[in-house]
Design goal:
The protein is mainly alpha-helical and 247 residues long. The protein is built from 10 helices and 2 strands. It has a two-stranded antiparallel sheet. A hairpin with a 2-residue loop joins strand 1 and strand 2.
Length: 247
């Protein structure tokens, strides 16, 4: 499979499952209605695991422009591929959000809360304070990207030298746990977008889909979950490089 197609598919799976758990909790007349933050954070972590397990061996499963920016600046990814990866991720995010709408179509029709419907596509801050909202996204994404950069595979020594052992699909557990702890510990302010393809792309889908009773797509907030994660990813790369140079 082409690596760019893998990023598209992986991001679509991520958004289908991640925004799907939000829809299950927020939309009316679902079996998961009202279950709360723990269900959402758990669902998102497992969505990350599933998406990374599906395409990790093909594209590396960035599935997030902030991750692509971070690993590129850290010298762990070929720069010329970065924009194509990001384009595939953003397109996959739109497609995944459309799939959520199709899957829960009857429940969107049964829901009379326009804010809840918007929340199944994109984030809104618990308290709107744009400088602090931006700071939240920068810090949370820094944790994600820095942890990804610092992850290593097991190694063992042989007579011919050191051998690195890959974890295969189970390696996706590491990233899933990072997203899980970010959601539990840092998700209370902005809903922890930490990924422009998780927020901006579904926001586009919300704007173009014929959802009955929807509100505006809150474009006045839309740059926070884009700029914050990109800055957080870049900062993680800079700190990582500084640490490498000091060794």
């Amino acid at each position: 499979m082409n690596v760019f197609l893998a990023e598209f598919i992986g991001t679509a799976i991520l958004i289908l499952l991640g925004n799907g758990v939000v829809a299950n909790v927020k939309l009316q007349k679902t079996y998961g209605h009202g279950e709360g933050l723990i269900v959402i954070t758990t669902g998102w972590a497992l969505a990350v695991f599933t998406a990374v397990a599906c395409v990790g061996d093909i594209s590396g499963a960035h599935l997030n422009p902030a991750v692509t920016v971070g690993v590129t600046l850290a010298g762990k990814f070929a720069g010329p591929k970065a924009m194509m990866y990001i384009a595939a991720q953003m397109a996959g995010g739109v497609f995944g959000a459309i799939l959520v709408w199709v899957f829960y179509m009857d429940h969107y029709k049964a829901t009379d809360d326009a804010d809840a419907m918007l929340g199944t596509f994109c984030n809104s801050p618990a308290i709107r304070n744009l400088p602090l909202n931006l700071t939240s996204e920068i810090i949370a994404t820094f944790i994600l990207v820095y942890a990804v950069l610092m992850m290593t595979n097991p190694k063992f020594e042989t007579t011919s030298g050191e051998v690195v052992v890959g974890l295969g699909s189970i390696g996706a557990v590491n990233v899933a746990l990072i997203v899980f702890v970010i959601g539990l510990c840092l998700g209370g302010t902005t809903g922890y977008a930490i990924n422009p393809a998780r927020d901006f792309s579904p926001r586009v889908a919300h704007a173009i889909l014929p959802i009955v009773g929807k509100r505006d797509s809150d474009w006045s907030y839309s740059m926070i979950p884009v700029v914050g994660p990109i800055l957080g990813g870049a900062l993680a790369a800079l700190i990582f490089l500084a640490g490498q140079q000091s060794i």
